[in-house]
Model the fold of this input.
Amino acid sequence: MQPLQSLRGMVDLLPEHTPLWQHVEATAAAHFRRAAIREIRTPLLEVTELFARGIGEATDVVGKEMYTFLDRGERSCTLRPEGTASVVRAAIQHGLLSQGPQRLWYGGPMFRYERPQAGRQRQFHQIGLELLGFADPRSDVEAIAIAWDLLADLGVGGLALELNTLGSPDDRARYRAELVAWLEAHRDQLDADSQQRISTNPLRVLDSKHPATQELLEGAPSLADALSGESHERFSQVRQGLEALGIPFTLNPRLVRGLDYYSHTAFEITSSQLGAQATVCGGGRYDGLVQQLGGAPTPAIGWAMGMERLVLLLQRSAEAASASVAPPDLYVVSRGVQAEALALPLARLCRQAGLVVEIDPSGAAFSKQFRRADRSGAPHAAVIGDEEAAAGVVILRELRGDGADRRLSPEQLLAALREGR
Ligand code: ATP
Ligand code: MG
Done:
């Protein structure tokens, strides 16, 4: 029979890789904790309408990339393609916003039906931050600083922050009209995708990866020229805030996050070490979203990081070496009916005290078990034969030094190991 395979773009994380993931997750959790940001967990499956309304029908994500199906109750369901819409839904549904501003983070799998390649999968993982109920430019700076510091702390190299402002909804409406007129006038020179976007999502044309379109756009009207004085002022406060923190950035007027509810700050953090899929973190201000999903008008800013791309980066750096698996503190070797019956109680005693203990359950010859004990990297073995079992003792053997064997009670063994740590 042919063995079954995972679905295309759905990737197994094998045990050799999970330590690095755990390291990244733990580092992120620590950064969030220190910034007084609390975790929220929402379902992987939501009603399709949440994303249609929350991300926008005209986006690639909703238009082409969602895993949508009817459940057994004929309800249209979608595997979440991103986290923000769900977090905002949950905040509204549970009245969190009436308790005051919310500083939230989330993490977990997301699903998009895309063409898989390095750093791009169909099930991928994000960690993300959402600051709900914060309007001040300082909150934009704080959100960006948290992302920047986390990446720097993880040891990600070649980082660059790209920054733009999309202005207020009014600024953008004005600009949109100007841009559409210009695009219409140059329709023939645009690639097919961009031609289509003129009517559905004209700002996204600016984001086109098409080289000829990119070149043409050099002559397009710029959003910066359409900004009101107030929006200019706001943007300069964000820039000053970043400068004051010593976080370097470049301005990228092409950086648009094509959703209608985005406003003001938009940013991406890229790494020069990533190749084509260079963006590790993307985010921005989305003052319109909470209202769009049925809540009271609430300003907000957030970002999401792609875990796969983060891990790819770390695998290439020396930092990764330090996140390899720690060996057990103790390896338990036993042979004979009575002896084997003592192995698990001994392991439990030591585990309850916080030690990492591996048991050899094979019942194989002692020589074989010792070979495995050596390979485990444990500094000590506990050896139990039937003679020791009858006497209620265990032999503690040093595997990395040349100290003599000691015959100890389980409690004495535990005390000896704790002293030796
Ligand atoms: P891209 O332009 O790379 O498709 P995006 O704008 O669709 O990115 P966002 O929706 O902003 O991405 O998601 C934030 C981050 O999540 C991205 O910067 C990236 O690191 C990661 N990401 C997005 N889609 C995928 C995917 N299919 N596989 C792996 N990581 C992804
Ligand atoms: Mg994408």
About this structure: The longest strand covers residues 102-111. The first helix runs from residue 18 to 34. The two ends are 50 Å apart (CA to CA). The mean pLDDT is 92.
